[in-house]
């Protein structure tokens, strides 16, 4: 998913690779510490720390990783929209026994992840396919589904498709968690929240990404997960939690020093 607003840590970068894929241009940039994918002058899709790719360099990925506070020992993880694979590195280090399936519609992105972001064939099962089509055809169930689908110039239409969230719900185990990274206008965001809350029986959590416009939205199959939020506040993972009749639980993440 696109991550808008460049930070000073991305200054001094140079483009080391570019491909005009069927889904738009893809560029790989780097500076002394970071390497990232960008589509234009404002949008970053993936970033890794070259000193340790398992560190989550982007704030929105740190927000998505809160899912592992609920799923302590995931066995099967599905990533829809793998990008450069930054989350794969994090999972392999912190949950080495987890089986990862990563799906991306763009073959050039998967190639870039392997050539420039250190993704190896044994790290995950890499599948070139449309995300909704994969959910329709798969007979697997997952402990965690990560949705990070992006499009360079607009919100992908599948993210406004009610059936997409029904399929995601069906592909989760009974204690499964869905986490999506979203960046769009308020009216579309409300539609997405409505779809998730419908299929997850109002068991949802919204976490705005600090300093950015991205929002992480969780859907929980387990009815007890929302009861764990006070514990995450005590652990200083979350700053505080609010409740809204339409949106549900809203939590604010502790800001990490730059």
Q: Which secondary structure elements does this structure contain, and how are they paired or packed?
A:
Layout: E1 3-4, E2 14-21, E3 24-30, E4 34-38, E5 43-49, H1 59-64, E6 76-80, H2 86-94, E7 99-104, H3 107-116, E8 125-128, H4 131-137, E9 142-147, H5 162-170, E10 172-182, H6 186-199, E11 204-208, E12 215-220, H7 229-234, E13 238-244, E14 248-253
Parallel strand pairs: 6-7, 6-9, 7-8, 9-10, 11-14
Antiparallel strand pairs: 1-5, 2-3, 3-4, 4-5, 10-12, 11-12, 13-14
How would you concisely characterize the structure shown here?
The chain has 258 residues and is of the alpha/beta class.
Describe this structure in words.
The longest helix is centred in the C-terminal third of the chain and has 14 residues, at 186-199. This protein has helices at 59-64, 86-94, 107-116, 131-137, 162-170, 186-199, 229-234; strands at residues 3-4, 14-21, 24-30, 34-38, 43-49, 76-80, 99-104, 125-128, 142-147, 172-182, 204-208, 215-220, 238-244, 248-253. Strands 8-7-6-9-10-12-11-14-13 form a nine-stranded mixed beta sheet. Strands 1-5-4-3-2 form a five-stranded antiparallel beta sheet, covered by helices on one side. The model is unreliable at 1-5 (pLDDT under 50). The chain has 258 residues and is an alpha/beta fold. The radius of gyration is 17 Å and the shape is globular.
């Amino acid at each position: 998913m696109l991550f808008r607003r460049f930070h000073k840590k991305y200054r001094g970068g140079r483009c080391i690779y570019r491909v005009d894929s069927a889904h738009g241009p893809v560029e790989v940039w780097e500076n002394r510490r970071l390497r990232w994918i960008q589509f234009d002058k404002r949008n970053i899709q993936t970033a890794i720390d070259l000193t340790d790719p398992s560190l989550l360099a982007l704030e929105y990925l740190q927000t998505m990783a809160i899912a592992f506070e609920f799923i302590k020992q995931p066995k099967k993880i599905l990533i829809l929209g793998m990008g450069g694979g930054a989350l794969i590195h994090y999972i392999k280090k912190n949950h080495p026994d987890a089986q990862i399936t990563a799906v991306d519609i763009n073959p050039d992105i998967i190639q870039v992840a392997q050539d420039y972001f250190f993704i190896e064939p044994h790290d995950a099962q890499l599948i070139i396919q449309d995300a909704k089509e994969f959910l329709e055809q798969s007979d697997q169930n997952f402990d965690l589904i990560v949705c990070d689908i992006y499009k360079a110039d607009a919100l992908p239409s599948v993210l406004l498709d009610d059936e997409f969230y029904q399929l995601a719900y069906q592909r989760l185990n009974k204690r499964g968690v869905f986490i999506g990274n979203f960046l769009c206008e308020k009216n579309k965001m409300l539609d997405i929240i409505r779809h998730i809350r419908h299929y997850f029986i109002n068991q949802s959590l919204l976490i705005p990404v600090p300093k950015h416009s991205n929002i992480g939205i969780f859907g929980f199959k387990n009815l007890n997960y929302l009861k764990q939020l006070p514990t995450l506040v005590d652990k200083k993972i979350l700053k505080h939690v609010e409740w809204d009749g339409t949106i549900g639980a809203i939590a604010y993440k502790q800001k990490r020093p730059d």
